[in-house]
Fold this protein.
Amino acid sequence: PVELVDSRVDLTQNLFDRVAFRLRHGRHPGEAAFNQRILSAALRFKPTLLLVTGLMPVRASALEEMRHLNVATVNYMTDDPFNPRHRSPTALRSIPSFDLYVSLKPAVDDDLRRAGARRICRSWFAYDPAVHFREPAPSAETRRWSADVSFIGGADQDRASLLAPVRDWARQHGKSFAVFGGMW
């Protein structure tokens, strides 16, 4: 059994929240509520493992509370948590409190060690045709999710500038182009 604690409930990404995030130096306005929901879910659900993906602002204190509940904590980090464009002080402070930090970027490992990571494990993005296959979308959704060329990922500033030539190429060749992910 799995229970999802969706960060979007507390960490919405409307314009107000993005401005507040910047003014608060990378701290989300809903951070306290998000951490409380994680702890409440753990007390109710009694998990054996908490899996955090990415730069979620899970506080070190919440992770320590998980330890008291005998919950193993893992962060599966797909991005560089030290990147100044999207770093989170809360996420950085919590690095030593995770039991395991899964890193997809070898260049980040030394920084993780310096930040106090207890244990680092390497993982890679992968494709297995037995698991990953195209599944037709419901007809009502087909147009919304269809594109000749697409990018899936967050709207980092550097990505937008890299994708502009791809968008221009798609237009010149009569192809559709779409981006999917947070803050586009």
